[in-house]
Structures are given as structure tokens and as C-alpha cells.
Specification:
The chain is α/β, with parallel strands linked by helices and 504 residues long. It folds into two domains: 262 residues, Aldehyde Dehydrogenase, Chain A, domain 1, CATH 3.40.605.10; 190 residues, Aldehyde Dehydrogenase, Chain A, domain 2. 39% of the residues lie in helices and 20% in strands. It is built from 16 helices and 23 strands. The chain has a seven-stranded mixed sheet, with helices on both faces. A five-stranded parallel sheet has the order 9-8-7-10-11, sandwiched between helices. The longest helix is centred in the first third of the chain and has 23 residues. The termini are far apart. The structure holds nicotinamide-adenine-dinucleotide. InterPro entries: Ald_DH/histidinol_DH (IPR016161), Ald_DH_C (IPR016163), Ald_DH_CS_CYS (IPR016160), Ald_DH_CS_GLU (IPR029510), Ald_DH_N (IPR016162), Aldehyde_DH_dom (IPR015590). It holds the Pfam family Aldedh.
């Protein structure tokens, strides 16, 4: 996810995407034990924030459907072939799934773009590359892992082995509906676990396709189940279910707390949390290229409509360059093409839904009341479309203890804070309950090392933002969560360490 890939467009025209969208037939049924399960009758409409229209009728799980899915996953784990397969064979299935995701790239990109509003170019070029790449990476890794033999006295043999942890409940949000599902499902499957995936009720359709492509790739029935439904009902039932061994969650910090409580109130399942953020992005006067720093700051906060856990929503700029950098960011914000997610020229699409837009607008209103200065944006736009669009928004003169400075907005709203020295910048950056990510712009190697060490964040980007690779772990400190997605470290979430001590 870089400014360069963001600029990629491809040959399909706006009209062609609209034609394909009309022909799309999304699946709203659950996938339980390898079969479509329409559910017990209740359903909800999946609305597109592009124009407010209903995309599909989606089965709405209650505890009974969650129980059926967990029972299927339990059976597939306890008695099925999946955990017992040679790991490289599991890897082959994941590689086939990666291939199928690429084959269905256009249909999946369209589904994502319609269900949560991101530009089709980003769904197609970024999200689908990320999710196919994730299944490919863990597919390749599956057959390459080894266990340990510990050093002991000669009369013993001590094996330290990693075993699949069991049934995984994966609960994910809507902002990267397939990538974030893939970051849970791919390592869990590679480890030999079975999975019940509950996508967000705001983006349930692409995950349905993922489940069905998994079957086509050769996952045995029950290994990957996909159940749709509301968080407080279906998500809660999964969190409380005694048949779930591991609950892997990505979403808000508030809901993460629920899952910790659900584990305490049920079977003490392991709970792994990837939560919210309020990431600082520090620009020093010796940044290698101030224009690039400003352009990346703007790209970072407006990419994916600002609906990014890692969004650099607090721009911390040295006072001597604060006005110059802010002006450049404001100019970028004003030039951004906000529009139809299906138009390849669109740079910022629709926010996920009306409820979310009103929350974001509430933050804007409160910030103005608190005395922050609105430099640009702040209003709903494209109202004639029936869709959910907001102008890219920049504030400065934001009080450091105001809600805008402290709370996650999860929208295209940037706050700029000037500082006078490095210590002040680090103190400001760390003055957050979150610790997901941070950015730093400097030409000085010592400053880069010293400041990145001092920042309490799971990822620090120096002279860039949102760069990454599957080889590096991703996750948060403080109330941004625990554990790590991506990289071989993700397997730690889905395996249990066992010691076998053999007295010889
Ligand atoms: P959310 O917490 O509202 O929902 C996430 C998931 O939890 C959804 O599947 C939802 O149905 C479910 N859920 C909601 N309420 C629940 C409840 N009471 N009990 C059980 N399950 C429940 O988050 P969202 O609005 O979908 O996504 C935005 C949030 O996700 C932001 O806070 C963002 O920072 C965070 N996020 C974090 C990362 C990361 O990797 N750290 C990545 C993306 C998004």
C-alpha cells in the first residue's frame, strides 16, 4: 500500500465496472460444514454506500447458527484430515486458494468496492493482491517449519513442538474485509486449525466468496466456515462459545474488551486483538523531502477514506515548517477526487455507511466547538448520489487533550500539531492510549534510531508510511492490541507449544 500503487489504474472503464456490478449475484447464505446454510429465516440487507442500494439479502446468524458452525469446525479439527495432513499438503491447498483469488480478482474487487465503498482500483490492485499474497505466503511457509529439541542431560530427550491450537473464531471488520480475514484465516489454516469466520455485517459478501473458493481449492468441509451476522449477537455467541479455542479479532478497542470478557466468562479461550489506533506522524525540518512528507501525510490519512487502523491521523510538524507542510496537505486534500468507487479515476470513495458518517461528522462538529480551526473539508458531499461521501478534512489548532486529538475517528480527518523540540514531539506522539503505528521524517540516522525506539508503537515507518511486506509482523502496543498478524510470528497465535520429555 504505497502512494505509487495507489496511483495504479487499469484498463477497465467506469461503464464496464458498472455493467459488471449489475451482473453481480452476491451470496448471502452462511457456509457451514461445506454447504450453503440459509439460516433460520432472519436476514439483513447488505447496503452499498456507493448509492444506498441493497446488494443482497444476507442470512443473519443467531447462537444456533454459530453453534452449528463451531460444531462443524470442532468435528473437522478433532476427527477430520486437515490437522493431520502433511503440512506441505495443507500448503498446496492454500496455494490453490491464492490462485483462485487471483482468478476471481475482478468479481471480488467489485464486491468489496460495492459493499464498503473503497475505490475499485484500490480493491483490485491493493486488496486483492494483499489477500492472494497472504494465502500464497502461508501456503509456501506451511511445509518449511521445524520444531525444536532442547538441550538436556544425555539421559533425556526433550521435544518442543508446536501443535495446531484447535478451532479458531475469527471476527473481522469491514475496512479491508478480505485482507484482514486472510491475515487470520491463512496462518490458522497453515497451522492446521479449523476456522469459523464472522465478517462484519457492513461487508459480508466478499468473505462469502472466500469461503466458497476455499472449498473449491480443496479445504475439507468444516475447515473454513463463514457465518454472517450482527456483532452483538453472532460475534458475541462466537466469543462465548466453549468449543472455540482461539478468538482472533480485528476491530475496535471497545469490542476487543468484550472478547476478553467473553473468554473470562466461558472457557478462557486465547484472545488475540488487533485494535484501533491514533497514529502520530512526525515531520522534522531535516526530512529528506518535505514535499514527499506532506504528500505522504495526505495520502496516508485519505487512503481508504481514512478508514485505516494505522491512519496517520495526528500530523506532528516542527513549528518552523508547520505552515508550509499544512498548506501542502490542504492543497492535496482539495485536489483529491472524491467520487463513485466504481470510477477508476476516483481517489477517495464512500464511507462505509450512514451511521459511520454521522459518527465522523460528530467528531468534526465537536472539534469546531472545541476551538479547532477547520482548514478544509468537514462536510458531506455528492448528496445527489444517495451514497455516503465526505470531503477530505484537515484541522489545526487542535487542543492536545480534546476528543479529536485522542479518539479514533476512522475517517478522512487529519489534525495538525506543531512542536518545538524532539522531546516534545515524542511526548505528544506517545500521549495516546493507542500504540499501533507511527511515522517519522528525518535525514539523521541517529535521530531515526533514537526516536523510533522511544515511540510506543508496533510499527514505526521512517521516511515513508504504510510500507510493508508479509515478512514483517503487524500489530499494536498498549490498547491497540496484542499478538501479531503477518510473518511467521502470526503462527504463534494459532499453535500451542508442547514439551515432551522422554527419559531414556
Ligand atoms: P467493530 O469493532 O465495530 O467490529 C469489528 C467486528 O466485531 C465486526 O465483525 C463486528 O460485527 C464485530 N462486533 C461488533 N460488536 C460486537 C460485539 N458487541 N460483540 C462481538 N462482536 C462484535 O469495528 P469496525 O467498525 O468493523 O472496524 C473499525 C475498527 O477496526 C477501528 O477501530 C479500526 O482501528 C479497527 N481495525 C484494526 C485493525 C488492526 O489490525 N489493528 C485493522 C483494521 C481495523
Amino acid at each position: 500500500m504505497t502512494p505509487d500503487t495507489h496511483a495504479v489504474t487499469h484498463a477497465v472503464t467506469h461503464e464496464e465496472w458498472i455493467r459488471r456490478a449489475k451482473a453481480l449475484a452476491p451470496v448471502g447464505a452462511h457456509l457451514i460444514d461445506g454447504a450453503d446454510a440459509p439460516g433460520a429465516g432472519s436476514s439483513f440487507g447488505a447496503l452499498s454506500p456507493r448509492d444506498g442500494r441493497t446488494l443482497a439479502d444476507v442470512a443473519d446468524a443467531g447462537p444456533a447458527e454459530i453453534d452449528a458452525a463451531v460444531t462443524a469446525a470442532r468435528r473437522a479439527f478433532d476427527a477430520g484430515p486437515w490437522p493431520r495432513l502433511e503440512p506441505a499438503e495443507r500448503g498446496q491447498v492454500l496455494l490453490r486458494l491464492a490462485g483462485l483469488l487471483e482468478e476471481h480478482r475482478a468479481e471480488l474487487a467489485l464486491t468489496i468496492s460495492l459493499e464498503m465503498g473503497k475505490p475499485i482500483t484500490e480493491a483490485h490492485d491493493i486488496e486483492l493482491s494483499a489477500v492472494a499474497g497472504t494465502f500464497r505466503w502461508y501456503g509456501q511457509l506451511a511445509g518449511k517449519l521445524t520444531d525444536e529439541v532442547a538441550h538436556t542431560t544425555p539421559d533425556a530427550l526433550a521435544l518442543v513442538t508446536r501443535e495446531p491450537a484447535g478451532v479458531v473464531g475469527a471476527v473481522v471488520p469491514w475496512n479491508f474485509p478480505l485482507t484482514l480475514a486472510g491475515w487470520k484465516v491463512a496462518p490458522a489454516l497453515a497451522a492446521g486449525c479449523t476456522v469459523v469466520l464472522k465478517p462484519s455485517e457492513h461487508a459480508p459478501l466478499s468473505a462469502s466468496v472466500l469461503g466458497r473458493l476455499g472449498l473449491e481449492a480443496g479445504l475439507p468441509p468444516g475447515v473454513l466456515n463463514v457465518v454472517n451476522g450482527a456483532g452483538p449477537v453472532a460475534g458475541r455467541a462466537l466469543g462465548l462459545h466453549p468449543g472455540v479455542d482461539v478468538l482472533a479479532f480485528t476491530g475496535s478497542t471497545a469490542v476487543g474488551r468484550h472478547f476478553l470478557r467473553h473468554a473470562a466468562d466461558s472457557n478462557l479461550k486465547r484472545v488475540w486483538l488487533e485494535l484501533g489506533g491514533k497514529s502520530p506522524n512526525i515531520v522534522l525540518p531535516d526530512a529528506p523531502d518535505l514535499d514527499q512528507a506532506a504528500a505522504t501525510a495526505a495520502w496516508g490519512i485519505f487512503f481508504n477514506q481514512g478508514e485505516m487502523c494505522t491512519a496517520p491521523s495526528r500530523l506532528l510538524v516542527h513549528s518552523s515548517i508547520a505552515e508550509q507542510v499544512t498548506e501542502a496537505v490542504v492543497a492535496r486534500a482539495r485536489a483529491l477526487r472524491v467520487g463513485d468507487p466504481l470510477d477508476p479515476a476516483t481517489e477517495m470513495g464512500a464511507l462505509v455507511g450512514e451511521g459511520h458518517l454521522h459518527r465522523v461528522l460528530g467528531h468534526v462538529r465537536t472539534a469546531v466547538e472545541d476551538g479547532a480551526r477547520l482548514r478544509t473539508g468537514g462536510a458531506r458531499t455528492l448528496t445527489g448520489t444517495g451514497g455516503v461521501y465526505l470531503e477530505p478534512t484537515v484541522f489545526d489548532r487542535v487542543a492536545p487533550d480534546s476528543p479529536l486529538a485522542r479518539e479514533e475517528v476512522f475517517g478522512p480527518v487529519l489534525s495538525v500539531f506543531p512542536f518545538d523540540d524532539l522531546d516534545e514531539a515524542v511526548t505528544l506522539a506517545n500521549a495516546s492510549e493507542y500504540g499501533l503505528a507511527a511515522g517519522l521524517w528525518t535525514s539523521d540516522l541517529s535521530t531515526a534510531h533514537r526516536v523510533s525506539r522511544a515511540l510506543r508503537a508496533g510499527t514505526v515507518w521512517v521516511n515513508c508510511y504504510e510500507r510493508g511486506d508479509l515478512t514483517v509482523p503487524f500489530g499494536g502496543m498498549k490498547q491497540s492490541g496484542n499478538g501479531r498478524d503477518k510473518s511467521a510470528h502470526a503462527l504463534e497465535k494459532y499453535t500451542e507449544l508442547k514439551t515432551t520429555w522422554i527419559q531414556l
